[in-house]
Each structure stands twice: as C-alpha cells, then as structure tokens.
Amino acid sequence: MASTRWSRRRARSAVRRGLTRFEVRLRSTCPGIGFTARITGTVLTEPPYPGTAEEIAGAVRTALRRATSEVSTDCDPDDLASAQDVLGQHLARQRQLPTDPPVEFTAELTLDLLPDDRAAVAALLAAQRQQAVADILRRQKTDALAAELADPAALLVRWVERESVDWSKLSGLAGDVTRIAQVFAQHRPEDERTVEHAAVEVLRDFLASFPDPAQKQMLYTLLTAGMTSAQRPQHAAKAQALLNGHGAADPAGES
Description:
By secondary structure, this protein is of the alpha+beta class. It is built from 9 helices and 4 strands; from the N terminus they run H-E-E-H-H-E-E-H-H-H-H-H-H. Strand 1 and strand 2 form a beta hairpin. The longest helix has 35 residues. It is elongated and about 105 Å long.
C-alpha cells in the first residue's frame, strides 16, 4: 500500500515537473511579431495515468500549445495586457486528453514579448502614426478643395487664375464649369458618409424636383404635419419657419 502511494506521488510529481513553465512561441495579428508564453499546466486527474508520466506531460503540452495557437492570432501585440487576459481565460478552461480513462487538466500562462518583438511593435506603431497623420492631412485637403470647387464661381476663379487663359472663351465655359462643380459637390467627407447624410441628399433632390412654388409649399406643409404627428414639435417648428419664409419670398420672386 505504501509503495502504491509512493508510486502515485512520484507519477504526479513527474507530470507536474513536465508541465511547469514550459515556453511556447505564439503568432499574433501582426505577421513576424509573436508572443512568448510561459505556461504552467495542472493535471486534475489523480494517478494512475493511462501512460507514463512523460507521455502524459507531453500530450498535455501539445494540447496546450494547440489551444493557445488557436487564439493568439487574434491578439494584438501592441495590447499585451488584453492578450494576456484573453489567452489566460482560454487556458483556464478545463480540458481532457482523449485517453481511456480521460486525463483532465487546466493551465495558466504569463505572456511577454522578446526584445526584437518589442522593437518591431514600436517601429510598427511609429509607421502607423505617420501614415495616419498623412491620411488625415490628405483627407482634409481633399475635403476642403472639393468644398471650394463645388461652387461654380470658385471653380471659375481657379480656372482663370491659370496662365494663358483666353478671356474671350470665358462665356462658353459656364456649362462646363457648372457640370464640373456638380461633380465636386457629390464628394462627401468621411464623417458625412452616413445613412442620415444620404437621406438628406435624397430629400434635397426630391424637393428640388418640384420647382413650382405651390408644390413646394404643399411639400413643406406635409413635412411639418408629419413631424407634428411624430411628436417632434421642435422639428415641426423649424419646418414651419421654412414654410413661412418660403411663402414670404414667393411674392417678391413673382413681381
């Protein structure tokens, strides 16, 4: 009996030694940059085991390497703390070897980056910041230029500022300038590319398709009534103000 207890204790200790802080190299979301994990496994099943202590420890290590590899490729090396939490929670789940009888185990890990990986992360972040600044400046320039050239008068000014402009041909440029300005007017900055802004464009085109003043007045009246029915009194008041202003402007336009 004492010999049996001693053999079980020895097998348990041998498995524990084989699972204490073994290292694993893990891939991350960034190709070429990886994590270094130190994993400590814990076998929950008591001896005797369906194999030698070396075989059980080796099988558990293989299973834990596979388990961490399944998740690490979704982890950002720039956020080591989050990666540690995600992988730690994943390894903390209870697993078992497909043996007869099954051997149950769990694990914990410590995650780190080697010096070369840390340097690579720093270089990558620096490049991303530079690219982000360049992208923002380019978008700002594009948005500002498109907003300016959406006005036919501004586009015409840009046109005539060029050298060797034939002033005698300016009268024939009106149609071209208007069409080009309309193309620029279709540009929308990134923060305006939403469903709400698209709906505003649809509504603007819809209202513009009714040029007759009486038709426009009817549309604004319907819009005001709809907002009132939807219990949006502030919006209804603004629509009513547009209606009043439109109605007041019509007689002057007809005179």
